[in-house]
Amino acid sequence: MPRDVPWVEKYRPRRLGELINQIKALGQVKAWIEAWLQGSPPKKKALILAGPPGTGKTATVYAIAREYGFEIIELNASDERTYEKVERYVQAAYTLDILGKRRKLIFLDEADNMEPSGAREIAKLIDRARNPIIMSANHYWEVPREIRNKAQIVEYKRLTQRDIIKGLVRILHAEGLTVPKEVLYEIAKRANGDLRAAINDLQTVVSGGIEDAVDVLAYRDTEKSVFQALAQLFATDNAKKAKLVVLGVDMFPHELLQWIDENLPYVYYKPEDIARAYEALSRADIYLGRAQRTGNYGLWKYATDMMTAGVAVAGVKRKGFVRIYPPKTIKLLTESKAERGLRDSVLKKIMKEMHMAKLEALETLNVLKAIFEYNPDMAAHFVVYLDLDLKEVEFIVGDKEKARTIWGKSMNIEKRLKERGELEEHVRVAAEKGEEIEPTEEEEAEEEAEEEISEEELEKAEEEMEAVEESGEKIDKPKKKGKQATLFDFLGKK
Ligand SMILES: Nc1ncnc2c1ncn2[C@@H]1O[C@H](COP(=O)(O)OP(=O)(O)OP(=O)(O)O)[C@@H](O)[C@H]1O
After folding, report:
1. Which parts of the sequence are annotated with region: Disordered (predicted)?
2. I need a surface site. Which of 64, 135, 144, 167 has the fewest CB within 10 A?
């Protein structure tokens, strides 16, 4: 299947002047690089371009290289072997050599994902550098301190909606296309300042037909990060990066697996690669099943590693723009979104009332499911304790009839608790006034019921007595079944 070139690549700014709304940052980068070229390297020999994704950091590096005639050595800062590679280039002569080789510009992406040991080594290399080193990071404060101390920061600002529209219109002109104004505004609004995301959205909408634009964009609203994460996952061959890109996706692993499963066949084309990728996915699925059965959710990590790193390194991917599709199963289940909302609200209540982290709360939810299925009385207590509503109970037990039974029981408990609260308050006030309190009829009936000894208990006591009489020992009367001390007992003893 032929593919279009991704527009983010096709329209990557070639010159600094094409970058939208980053004038201040560009001025700083130019001054810094010119200092190198004038033979007096700046005091800080490294630069950190810091700012939100899709705002032009990488584009700046490529435009600078083109305008000033540098050869770019692009490395991923989180890669363990980056240090060796940097060392190789950092010492290379920085002026044009006799063989006419170009100057080198070292570009380290993801400086906020660097291992501490790698960071120390690279900090040492910065001191010795004879070539400019530019790094890029989304979170400046997560760049290791050793590196921050030795680098000059250049801030990239989040692009405005107007900037985004400007970028999109430029592409539409170049492609000779138009899209309705509302669609353009919608894309710009959802992009949250990320022009890369907006361009990808535009290409998705245009390639899928404008008719389904609203559907696609609606999906993006809720699943925004999964679209972006999967596009990055399918673009990399680096196992570590593949694991990192899904970290921010707010999804359970089995949901993520469905998304990857749906999109895999569009990414690989050689049968043996497809087989390898599916092999990794099925192993992930085995881990997920085992986690579910045993309650050992630590296995989720292995499952996620298999479905990301395992898939990313499975073979040769198609080049070009990858349109990410939502899994059909999720698309069909419109109520799954509502269900997810319910699950989240139940989880939040468990986390709050039981002081648990999300993972523990999830395990607890599984236990609750079993309790709600088999023990409606106990379930009713949980309903009161967690302050669940009927819809949440239905979600947990998965059956309307059962949910209503549990709900009814929980109402009774609440009623009793409320009455008891009122009664206790009444007793407290009366006790303060020194008045006698008569137990209510209900209290008396409850007490009588508890005083009654069951047939079973009687039989057991008789057996015991016979046994002891035979042995000639003195025995105590069988103990009456204990009753929890209440406020009444307490007042009675006074
Ligand atoms: N300021 C901008 N002006 C013009 N195009 C831009 C700008 N910012 C981003 N783009 C477009 O978005 C694409 C991605 O931008 P770029 O790779 O520079 O983002 P980045 O800031 O490096 O993001 P990340 O932090 O995720 O690496 C570019 O190829 C370009 O098409």
Report:
1. 430-482
2. 144
pLDDT digits (tens, 9 = 90+) for 421-450: 776 676 667 666 665 555 556 555 554 444
Helix-helix angle 195-208:213-233, to 10 degrees: 120
pLDDT value, residue 457: 52
Does residue 241 have its Cβ closer than 6 Å to ligand 1? Answer: no
Domain of 327 in residue numbering reads as: 252-332
Q: Taking the model in full, what pTM does it have?
A: 0.54
What is the distance between the alpha carbons of residues 66 and 47, in angstroms, rounded to a whole number? 18
Return d(Cα 171, Cα 174) in angstroms, integer. 5
Tell me if 196 CB under 6 Å of ligand 1.
yes
Asked if 326 and 340 sit in the same domain, the reply is: no
- The number of folded domains in the chain is 4
- What pLDDT, in 10s, does the model give residues 186-201? 889 888 899 998 998 8
The CATH number covering residue 53 comes to 3.40.50.300
Q: Is 108 in the pocket of ligand 1 (CB under 6 A)?
A: no
Q: Which one of 12, 15, 164 would you pick to mutate in the ligand 1 pocket, going by the greatest count of ligand atoms within 8 A of its CB? A: 12
Whether residue 147 has pLDDT greater than 80: yes
* Domain C-terminal end among 414, 444, 464: 414
| Residue 107 token pair | 């570009």
Beta bridge partners of 46: 133, 151
* 289 labelled ligand-binding: no
Which of 290, 311, 332 represents a domain boundary (last residue)? 332
Same domain, 101 and 39: yes
Which of 107, 195, 225, when mutated, tests ligand 1's pocket best, judged by the most ligand atoms within 8 Å of its CB? Answer: 195
CB within 8 Å of 203: residues ≥ 6 apart? 4, 6, 7, 321, 323
